Amino acid sequence: MMSTPITNCGGIDVAKRNFVIGISSLHKTKTKTETNNPKGFNHAIEYLKKHQVQLVVLESTGGLEIPLAKALHGAGIDVIIANPRQTHQFAQSQSLTKTDAKDAKMLAFYAQMMAQRADLPTLLYQPPSEAEEVLEALLNRRNQLVDMRTAEKNRLEQVHISQVKSVEQMIAHLTQLIDDLEKQIDDHNQTHFGDKAQLIQKIKGVGTLTSATLLSMLPELGKVSHKKIASLVGVAPHPKQSGTIKFKSRCFGGRAVVRKTLYMATVVAVRFEPRIKAFYQHLLGKGKPYKVAINACMHKLLTILNAMMRDNIALA
Predict the structure, then answer these.
(1) Is the pLDDT of residue 153 over 60?
(2) Same structural domain for residues 28 and 107?
(3) Are 210 and 261 in contact (CB under 8 A)?
(4) How confident is the model at residue 70 (pLDDT cuts 50, 70, 90)?
(5) Looking at the chain, which runs of residues are DSSP E strands?
(6) In this structure, are 19 and 119 located in the same domain?
(7) What percent of the chain has pLDDT over 70?
(8) Are 185 and 249 contained in the same domain?
(9) How many CB atoms lie within 10 A of CB 132?
(10) Among residues 77, 315, 81, 314, which one has the least CA distance to residue 220?
């Protein structure tokens, strides 16, 4: 992590086959294109180091950016994986033209702006551990199979009678695969995250799948502030005001898979976890709609889990 003021910043627009590198200090239109593979990563690292780039911004693009981010981090170059919503708003303030080269230069200027932030160290990309990657892969595959099983169950109501047995066999097969994966998830969770998993599972509603999701897909849990963790998950209401007009605060963005899992845990917690249940009943008593009350309980549950992980102490 850098200890001196940043002079040069880079931005990389990543696509499936190629990526385009822009550097803030170079000529306005000068960019460099590389192939999105390990050889291209090495060329990019050499190019960035040649121009003494200390910070690079990539946009989150559904995982395409991760291999490059890991390579840059491993080479000692600080990386931010930015929310496309935020970079898009920044881009609109710069130019209405959109090309890969323009996007790369825009990300470089965005990096220059981010470098001035006091909380920069908390924004930098940290690669997950091998254990976190494996656990996330197991969870992702389970979620895929659950979606496939749901589709087959829906199809069962519409399929011709001659094909009912085939669909039922597929449902049974998918159920067996899901059961096997859940056992693997539990074993991996206990082997690599045993103490942490047992700690947060002390909350009623937080089971194996919830703890595995939080530990693999929300590694910041216990390491950042309550406001930051709520924003990462997407359960923090963002106020919106213009002059004397105040709009309704809304929650948006965040990690959808984590938020969905947290929601399911909260639905159980409002029934069986005393502190969450009391808070939920208090909100309903004040006339809050169900969705508002549940979201507030999700926020509270996440805050409690964050504090537990930070202090390594179970809920009193």
Answers:
(1) yes
(2) yes
(3) yes
(4) very high
(5) 8-14, 18-23, 31-35, 53-59, 78-82, 238-242, 245-250
(6) yes
(7) 90
(8) no
(9) 16
(10) 81
